[in-house]
């Protein structure tokens, strides 16, 4: 009888595993990177810095705005900026060696900009990767979300977001530094974060975008850990505010916190989430992000570092 029960249990496990379909996200194994070598303006030192993008392996020389290559769906917080005529780069996302391949290393750090008599400021940057595009060159530090085209067209309904991760979480307070005024210490620790949001978007006659939240998978990480492989964040559908695992940070994103996207006229506009959609609705877009911080722009724990690899969707 015991052997029969064990056989039945193993059979159920095998059937369950066969029923699950794991679909890798394009370039989500983080093994290919574009290296961009950009010479910054002489007034801030004139150094050539390398910044990185997730895409087909190649090198680009010069201060050329990046538009994405090889069909890669990934954008990042690594950017080329041109403020008041000064060329500056920011890089907080790096390729990092992992076994025989590579992974993405996302870190929270201060970018220092100094030009005698013109600029002297520190800007806190949290390393982030996301599905979408960054609009370059960046011309100011105001409203950073308006420079990020968040989300890609997507119409399926996965059960989980799967990935590998490792985290180094310093036991330190947060720092606020936007480049204007002195740096400030903010009590409390930051968290790394990974999330997937499925939305049903529409555009009105004036070009405004609207969204209803179809599916939600979101988690924050605060404990230092070695590699955790094939970690899964469940995706819950419909209004999840009564779900046992619901946290306040999983709520709808709107108002000043709205992400942006291009409308049919090519203009970047906010995409406020106005309601929870029906649990059986079909999404039109997927928003996915991994970041070494989870708070407001320009605030985070310096040194917080999240490594991620092998992003996939599980059905």
Folded structure, characterized:
With 315 residues, the protein is mostly beta strands. It has one helix at residues 2-19; strands spanning 22-24, 33-39, 48-54, 58-61, 74-76, 79-83, 86-90, 93-98, 101-115, 119-126, 128-134, 148-150, 152-153, 160-168, 174-176, 184-186, 192-203, 209-221, 225-234, 236-237, 260-262, 268-270, 273-276, 285-291, 299-300, 305-314. The strands form six sheets. Strands 5, 11, 12, 13, 17, 18, 20, 23 and 24 form a nine-stranded mixed β-sheet that branches. The longest helix has 18 residues, at 2-19. It is globular.
Secondary-structure map:
Layout: H1 2-19, E1 22-24, E2 33-39, E3 48-54, E4 58-61, E5 74-76, E6 79-83, E7 86-90, E8 93-98, E9 101-115, E10 119-126, E11 128-134, E12 148-150, E13 152-153, E14 160-168, E15 174-176, E16 184-186, E17 192-203, E18 209-221, E19 225-234, E20 236-237, E21 260-262, E22 268-270, E23 273-276, E24 285-291, E25 299-300, E26 305-314
Parallel strand pairs: 2-4, 18-23
Antiparallel strand pairs: 1-26, 2-3, 5-11, 6-7, 8-9, 9-10, 9-26, 11-12, 11-24, 13-24, 14-19, 14-26, 15-16, 15-25, 17-18, 17-24, 18-20, 21-22
């Amino acid at each position: 009888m015991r052997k029969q029960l064990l056989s039945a249990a193993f059979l159920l496990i095998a059937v369950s595993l066969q029923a699950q379909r794991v679909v890798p996200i394009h370039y989500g194994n983080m093994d290919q990177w574009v290296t961009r070598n950009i010479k910054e303006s002489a007034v801030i030192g004139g150094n050539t810095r390398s910044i990185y993008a997730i895409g087909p392996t190649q090198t680009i020389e010069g201060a050329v705005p990046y538009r994405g290559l090889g069909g890669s769906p990934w954008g990042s917080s690594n950017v080329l900026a041109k403020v008041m005529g000064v060329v500056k780069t920011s890089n907080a996302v790096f390729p990092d060696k992992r076994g025989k391949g590579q992974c993405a290393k996302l870190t929270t750090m201060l970018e220092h900009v100094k030009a005698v008599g013109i600029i002297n400021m520190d800007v806190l940057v949290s390393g982030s990767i996301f599905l979408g595009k960054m609009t370059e060159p960046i011309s100011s530090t105001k409203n950073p979300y308006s420079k990020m085209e968040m989300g890609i067209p997507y119409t399926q309904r996965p059960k989980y977001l799967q990935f590998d991760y490792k985290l180094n979480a310093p036991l330190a307070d947060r720092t606020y530094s936007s480049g204007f005024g002195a740096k400030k210490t903010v009590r409390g620790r930051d968290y790394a974060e990974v999330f997937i949001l499925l939305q049903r978007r529409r555009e009105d006659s004036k070009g405004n975008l609207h969204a209803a939240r179809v599916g939600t998978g979101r988690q924050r990480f605060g404990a230092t850990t070695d590699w955790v492989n094939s970690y899964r964040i469940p995706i819950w559908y419909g209004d999840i505010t009564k779900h046992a695992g619901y946290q306040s940070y999983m709520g709808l994103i709107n108002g000043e916190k709205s992400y942006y996207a291009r409308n049919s006229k090519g203009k970047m506009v906010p995409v406020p989430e106005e309601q929870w959609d029906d649990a059986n609705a079909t999404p039109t877009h997927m928003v996915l992000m991994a970041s070494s911080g989870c708070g407001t722009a320009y605030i985070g724990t310096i040194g917080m570092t999240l490594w991620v690899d092998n992003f996939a969707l599980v059905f």
